[in-house]
Amino acid sequence: MPSLLVSLRRAAVGLACVSAVAHAQGSRGILAGSVIDTASHPVVGATIAVEDTPLHTTTDSTGRFVLRDVPAGPQLVQVTRRGYVTQEFEVQIEKDVSLSVTWTLQRASGAAGAEADQPAEPAASAANGKPARLAGTTRYDGFYARRQSLKSGVFLTHEDIEATGKTSLRDILETVQGVRVRQSSAGRMIALGGCGPGTVSVYLDGDRVVTGTAQTFGNDRRGGGGGRSRGGSASSSSGPDPLEFVDQLTARDVEAIEVYRTAAELPPDLHGDACGVVIVWRR
Known about the structure:
Blueprint: H1 4-26, E1 28-37, E2 47-50, E3 56-58, E4 64-71, E5 73-80, E6 87-93, E7 98-105, H2 141-149, E8 154-156, H3 158-163, H4 169-173, E9 179-184, E10 187-192, E11 200-204, E12 207-210, E13 254-260, E14 276-282
Parallel strand pairs: 1-7, 11-14
Antiparallel strand pairs: 1-4, 2-3, 2-5, 5-6, 8-13, 9-10, 11-12, 13-14
């Protein structure tokens, strides 16, 4: 039998191990902040992932995020978003401290293949109905040029959006005849009356976040160049829902919406993209 002294030593070692484990488990902090683009616009739906851990989240409609229970110490955080260059940031997490950061992503427009994920922007003119309040930006010129020149499609300006009386982007989209936002175990899906399931492409600020095909939703993996894309036609259990912004954005966040409900309505630069297309432009 072990002596009393040996037993006491073993008990002391055991208590020390338990204390060390408890200390390690409690040595965690919070990482919070926002992700913006080079024009200081919030980046919605960016994935924030702490490398070598299962911790990840996505930015909300204001570009903000919060990650709790991040292990204390130096951490490498990867920020990804379709259409932007993937970035990695080093942070120092302190126990029981909330670290606030602001990170900037650069659009991948100069990278090979990125332009294929963005609708072309026709030149705008003073007669295309663009309001005076937008005179200082070319961001929405393509929307107003298409609205002026095309004979098909549905175009909602910010004034039209406010006139719907709806608050959420989901409800606003569903004011357009034939548009429905559906929820399934795979994530959100936008359905158009003239198109079958999985055949609708969705763009946010010119970046294609959902690629519509004739295949089952979730199988497509085309992404923009320059960054690592995790998005597909719908979310899966292993990644964020690319249409999460539909329930995050409100009427005051959205400047314009374009809806092409059949292939026949698509503008020339989007022919062959999918059966239907929805384009949302944030303010």
